[in-house]
Amino acid sequence: ACFSTPIKSQIQQNIVPKLVDALRKEPFRLVVLRLLYHLSTDDRCKSTFSYTEAPPMVYKLVVKSHETRLEKTLAALAVNLAMNQRCAERFLGESGLKPLMERLLRSRDPLLAKMIRNCASHDMASKEQFREYVPDLVTLLKGCEAEDNVDLLVEVLGTLGSLNMSSIPFAHLLVDYDLVSLLQRLLVPGFAEDDVVLEVVVFIGTCAQDPETAKVFASSSLVHALHDVMADKQDDDEIVLQIVFCYHYFIQHECTRDVLVGQVWRSASISDFFPHIWP
């Protein structure tokens, strides 16, 4: 049946708490998960979930699952709920990230990684929990590249790119884990898929917010690599925008500014970088 938006919203608000209660009954659980998943695809409905026991119940089902990888309906529901900040806060609680990360490191489940990534995307107090697991995420990232596990690679990069926290020593991470070489490989035109390239650029932009990374970037070929990516992906507005974001931080520091202006930009006019703006 078709309903007007106010009536549909009222139905959702009334039915979600009842379905969440039914989630406690194992014989009905899979059917209820499917119904809750479909409701969770509506952004207006996600906030309704946050005022029920859905977040802690879904969280418990995730961390207690005996499957190597999460059942897809459960995983999809968890991913959708994590897009809502209040739900994400309830997922993480005071120390809720630890069981999720332990499970991710064991299972290497891309859908669980997407749930964790969505939690990381919110600016909230519990986000500080991620700082402890940055070395694990970096190690996982390098393993993904070695295994050519693209789905997991995208989610781990996306998680790291969301951690715009001053407490994370990005310069040390880039050097100690030889991340510069990995990022350079992933930015070689034609080497990686566009969604990987985008996440690499976002991560570089996050790292660039740490002033200590300026010397690392200036001594590498990453500034030049970003120029090559912009030339190659000039029709992809999202990638271009994220590269401009990187440039914003490069220009603020003398060493990266010298590379950008003195070497990269010297060889091209500004219209070469933004042909869709200056045809």
Described by the principal axes of the CA atoms, the overall outline is elongated
Question: Tell me about the biggest sheet?
Answer: none
Class computed from helices, strands and strand pairing: mainly alpha
List unreliable stretches of 5+ residues.
none
Estimated radius of gyration = 21 Å
Number of strands: 0
Give the mean pLDDT: 89
Helix content: 55-70%
Number of helices: 18
Strand content: under 5%
Order of helices and strands: HHHHHHHHHHHHHHHHHH
Oligomer: single chain
Distance between the termini: 50 Å
Gist?
This protein is mainly alpha-helical and 279 residues long.
Chart the SSEs and their pairings.
Layout: H1 5-22, H2 29-40, H3 43-50, H4 54-64, H5 72-82, H6 85-92, H7 97-107, H8 110-120, H9 134-147, H10 150-162, H11 170-176, H12 179-187, H13 194-208, H14 214-218, H15 222-232, H16 237-250, H17 254-264, H18 270-273
Helix pairs in contact: 1-2, 1-3, 2-5, 4-5, 5-8, 7-8, 8-10, 9-10, 10-13, 12-15, 13-16
List keywords for this structure.
279 residues; mainly alpha; elongated
Task: Please provide a written account of the structure.
- There is one protein chain.
- It is elongated, with a radius of gyration of 21 Å.
- It starts with a helix and ends in a 6-residue tail after the last helix.
- α13 (194-208) packs parallel to α16.
- The mean pLDDT is 89.
- The protein has 279 residues and is mainly α.
- The chain has 18 helices and no strands.
